[in-house]
Amino acid sequence: MSYTPGVHVYSEIGPLRRVMLHRPGRELENVTPLNMERLLFDDIPEAVLAAEEHDKFAQVLRACGTEVIYLKDVLAELLEDSERREDFLRKFLLEAEVYSKRCPYLLEHLMSYETNKLADTVFSGLRREELSLNTFHLADNDYADLFWFDPIPNAFFMRDPMTVIANGVAVNCMWAKTRKRESMILEYLHSYHPIFASTPKYYKRTENAHIEGGDVLILSDKVILIGVSERTEATGAELLARKVISDPDNTISHALVFMIPRKRAFMHLDTVFTMVDRDVFTIHPEILPTLEIFDITVDLSGNTQIKSYGSDAKKALSELLDLPEVELIPCGGSSMIDARREQWGDGANTLTVAPGEVIVYERNRITNRLLREAGVKVHEISSSELSRGRGGPRCMSMPLWRDDL
Question: How far apart are the first and last CA of the chain?
Fold first, then answer.
């Protein structure tokens, strides 16, 4: 399959023309009560239903005029070449911390797989019951570990491991060890797949500061927004801001920083705040009293300039986006009980497919009603299983191309 090369994202709301998704598969069947906490799950999703819900999500995107590209298909293209396959697997097994004396046996075994099966196995993990190794090491007899290497069940949250910014990308340094293989896969694709040919890299996964894509929003062709959260450090936010602003090949000149409470429920900024139109945003009201807001710019001498907006989100957004005022739609409405329930179900996490047109989870009925009352066109999708992974429609998508506004 051939793909149009290049990326282009200068807003959160420009008509979405191309997006990368990962359809959840057998990796969800490899989440167990014993490993789910390590794999960042609070519950065990039902894999078949999760895949069906995800298919409906993709259908809605296509109906909105968006080309859907799947991560597994793009990876499989590279794995067709035997030399590239071996190179990738060596790097992947190293990232998976496979015991070094076991690695040659697993490498030989995986090299023999048909390409689609291999791409599936990269994400699903490899159960010990699926392969017996004729080796004699104590580590090979540790039956408390049921996998030769772990599944990657968070991979359907495509937003986090790599972020498209303007005509380049940030390959993110993931907060959790279990998610580092996701950014390794995206880094490999960025290096070798023609879809990312000649795109600049604003951040490397080896940086000594965590940052994840759920904390990066492209508000306009001049402003990016970065959240400092449980999973993105202030140092990472400033590093990314400087690299993006200093690039003469894009028009971004400001990085707005929202510092939010560092807690599991608010793991990323887009779990509490998203943009749905030029002047309309969703927000979880619980963060408003605790917000610390800064504007980062870089002067002609290359020095970082930082301006504080205190906790005044409306002032920061209206000034930097050159708007007379902005509307903040509270997730869950005026009741803090409803707000907390719907924020936990990703009520604030909208994926905007065009100005004033969003995809949301149907379970968040109060937030969705408020969006409609504000004139927003709402596409609802079911999420009984997808939401168990703690992420919404924005989390599940990596926009590759948006039309300019």
Answer: 30
Tell me the per-residue pLDDT of 133-171, one tens digit each, with 9 for 90 and over: 665 454 555 545 789 999 999 999 999 999 999 999 999
Please report the domains of the chain, with CATH numbers, ordered by start residue: 154-402 (3.75.10.10)
Q: Which of 226, 232, 193 is nearest to 5 (CA)?
A: 193
Name the residue among 185, 374, 163 with its Cα closest to residue 280: 374
CA nearest 223: which of 259, 256, 248, 268?
256
Contact 1, 116 (CB under 8 A): no
pTM over 0.85: yes
384 burial (CB, 10 Å; 0-12 / 13-18 / 19+) is middle
Distance, C-alpha 354 to centroid of its chain: 19
Instruction: Say which of 64, 173, 331, 395 is annotated catalytic.
Output: 395
Fill in the DSSP letter of residue 365.
Answer: H
Contact (Cβ atoms closer than 8 angstroms) between residue 17 and residue 34: no
SS3 content of the chain, % helix, strand, coil (to 5): 35, 20, 40
Q: How many CB atoms lie within 10 A of CB 289?
A: 7
pLDDT score for 338: 97
Q: What is the pLDDT of residues 39-88, one digit of tens each?
A: 999 999 999 999 999 999 999 999 999 999 999 999 999 999 999 999 99
Strands 168-171 and 327-330: unpaired
Find out whether 315 and 334 touch, Cβ atoms under 8 Å: no
Query: Strand 162-165 vs strand 168-171: parallel, antiparallel, or unpaired?
Result: antiparallel
CA torsion sign for 203, 205, 208, 210 is: positive
Scanning the structure block, which residue is given the tokens 């969006």? 371
Q: Checking phi first, is residue 40 left (phi over 0); if not, alpha (psi -120 to 50) or beta? A: left
Question: Given its phi and psi angles, is residue 25 left (phi above 0), alpha (psi -120 to 50 degrees) or beta?
Answer: beta
Beta strand pairing status for 201-203 and 216-218?
unpaired
* Active site annotation includes 395: yes
- DSSP secondary structure code for residue 291 in this structure: -
